Amino acid sequence: MRNWFEQGGSDYARFRPEYPAQLAAYLASVAPDAGLAVDVGCGNGQLTQLLAAHFGQVVGLDPSADQIANATTGDHLSYQCAPAERLPLADHSVGLITAAQAAHWFDLPAFYSEVRRVGAPRAVLALISYGVLDLDAALNERFQRFYWQEIGPYWPPERKLVDSGYATLDFPFEEFQAPPMHIRVAWRQPEFLGYLQTWSAVRSAREAGREDIVTRFADDLAVLWGDEQTPRSVTWPINMRIGRL
To answer: Start and end of every Methyltransferase type domain (predicted)?
Structure first.
C-alpha cells in the first residue's frame, strides 16, 4: 500500500488542523491508568503531544521517517519509526492505544493482534478520524462540490472509511460511545489552501495531469473568500470507534 505521507512532513506539520485538548483529556479519563500511551500512525504528533499532558510516557509511532523528523517534541514524549503491524512495545504494557486519521491505512487484523499483545488489562483502543469539513455558508457550497464531485475521484479507496467515520470497520472490542467533539479553527485563505495541498487526492490529481481541478477551485475560492487575510471558520466533526480490550 502506498504511503501518501512519506514525503511532505513539514507541510503536514504546518497545515494539518490540531485536535482539541478536550480529546486528549477524554481519552485519558477512560484509560485504566496514566502510565503509558501509544499513538500509532502518529504523523508529526498532533495528538501525541496532547496525550503527553496526561500520561507518564507517550510513544508516537509512524512508518514515515519524514513525518517523525517533523514531530513535535516535549516532555514525556518519544517517537519511533515503526508500522502499525509491528509495534516495538512490551507485552501488556500500554493503557491507551490511539490511531488518529490513520487506521484506514492499516492491515487491521495484524494491527489488532498487536493491540491485544501490547495492551494492558482493560486497555482502551481509540480509532479517531475527522470527517468532511464545513466552511462559512458563502464558501461551503463550492467546497462541497469540489470535495465530492471534482477531487472526489482521486481519493484512495481508503478515504471512504474516513467519510463514514469508520462505521464499517471491523472493531472486535468492548465498544462504548464517546461524547461529540469537533475541531475548530479560524484560517486565512493561504492556510486553507496549504491544508488542501496535504491531501492525497490533490497529489493524485496532479500525478494524473489534472492540476487544473485544484487551480479552478482555488480561483473560485479566492473570489468567494474576499480578502485572503480574513479568517474564516473551518469545522470538522471528530468521529471515533473506541473500546476496551
So the answer is: 38-126
Q: What is the rounded CA–CA span in Å between residue 43 and residue 200?
A: 14
Residue the block writes with cell 492499516: 106
Determine the pLDDT at residue 192: 93
* Segments making up each domain of the chain, as ranges: 9-244
Q: 9-244: which CATH architecture? A: 3-Layer(aba) Sandwich (3.40)
- The predicted structure's pLDDT at residue 4: 34
